[in-house]
Amino acid sequence: METLRKLEILADAAKYDASCASSGAGKRDSKKSGGIGSTEGSGICHSYTPDGRCVSLLKILLTNFCIYDCAYCVNRVSSNVPRARFRVAEVVALTLDFYKRNYIEGLFLSSGIIRSADYTMEHMVEVARQLREEHRYAGYIHLKTIPEASPELLAAAGKYADRLSINVELPTEAGLAAFAPEKTMPTIRGAMGELRWRIEESKEERARPSVVATPHRSAQKRAPKFAPAGQSTQMIVGADGASDRDILTTSDQLYGNYHMRRVYYSAFSPIPDASKALPLQPPPLQREHRLYQADWLLRFYGYGIEEITDTTQDGMLDLDIDPKMAWALRHPEQFPVDLNLAPKELLLRVPGLGVRNVKRVLMARRHGRLRVADVARLRAPMRKLLPFVQLLDHHPHRRLDDPASLRASLAPPPRQGSLFGESLAS
């Protein structure tokens, strides 16, 4: 099979993996080494997948052959799809060729399982090794690691990759047992724990003072980095019956127990020859969006799981308004917040105020009391903000006495989809 046809098949097969962002990589270039590539990203062109996703990584599978039969996966062993497999040398050559043409800033490599987890992982690690050691490639590398692989192979992967990721697949152990019987939650969590331990050990060793060379003692080399951009994971949303509360609870545990850099949420997409146990329709894409917003509240705004999912909708997030607004409307007794007096923790609860604007408010009020015009200069969404705040020249009065009416005024009106496929964003 020609390389171009393989690329067409294996790039399309990789599009379902959302956890491929290159954020968190340290700065590195090859000017001094005489190699190729950098993680600076200057001058990098972005390419677009057929479904509109913007990517700047060569995002492919080593192969879409797989011995597993996960019901939600288009590449499962029982799926009737075209199959292809790259040789190690082909992936290396494609990465270098695309980088030299300024199409990409790095490589995201995943794979189906062929023969065994160790056999597959060996080939993926060899791709990264050849790029780093034989071609002195300094660009970004993200490897999707296989939880069943040996600890030695996980260690080798972290030696060459900037980021490693292991998909938790589904948010609950029951869902995983039902739809991916070859995979187990203890194995996945065990591999995540192995990566966390190695990442933290590497950081601790590199933080120790280095030994300076003397006439009687040679200099001590710094410990090598291990996956300096950390680890991430991904969950499929809407394939099983897990609620948003279940999903966010699992995410919160992953952030706390394994120090994940990111948890990605991927809306289930119906696949050919699907199991009858799977839903016929995908979940609303807005659900995926609301989960990302709720994830942000957990990580950066100090919200707890119960606060975000404290609804009468069986643990599901409101699709019409964002989770922060939903919390504010459920707790009108907390508002209005006086922007001239409230502490940072309370300012972060105000709809329309993000972390950056909260910092700006705190800085601005050192020089005088804030008015509506002062806040407007922050380019905050005033329509969303004003019902919940008090300023020197503004008070919402009794708007918060009727949360249902306020919600109706803030929620976007329902829109009829076009029969002719016109974009609703236009």
Describe this structure in words.
The protein has 426 residues and is α/β, with parallel strands linked by helices. Helix content is 37%, strand content 9%. It has helices at 3-13, 88-100, 117-134, 151-160, 173-179, 185-207, 244-258, 285-300, 305-308, 323-330, 344-347, 355-364, 372-376, 382-385, 403-410; strands at 47-48, 54-55, 57-61, 106-110, 140-144, 163-165, 231-237, 262-267, 337-338, 389-390. Strands 3-4-5-6-7-8 form a 6-stranded parallel sheet. A two-stranded antiparallel ribbon has the order 1-2. Strands 9-10 form a two-stranded parallel ribbon. The longest helix has 23 residues, at 185-207. The chain is globular, with a radius of gyration of 25 Å. The two termini are 42 Å apart. The relative contact order is 0.08. Mean pLDDT is 85; it is low at 38-51 and 417-426.
List the helices and strands and how they pair.
Elements: H1 3-13, E1 47-48, E2 54-55, E3 57-61, H2 88-100, E4 106-110, H3 117-134, E5 140-144, H4 151-160, E6 163-165, H5 173-179, H6 185-207, E7 231-237, H7 244-258, E8 262-267, H8 285-300, H9 305-308, H10 323-330, E9 337-338, H11 344-347, H12 355-364, H13 372-376, H14 382-385, E10 389-390, H15 403-410
Parallel strand pairs: 3-4, 4-5, 5-6, 6-7, 7-8, 9-10
Antiparallel strand pairs: 1-2
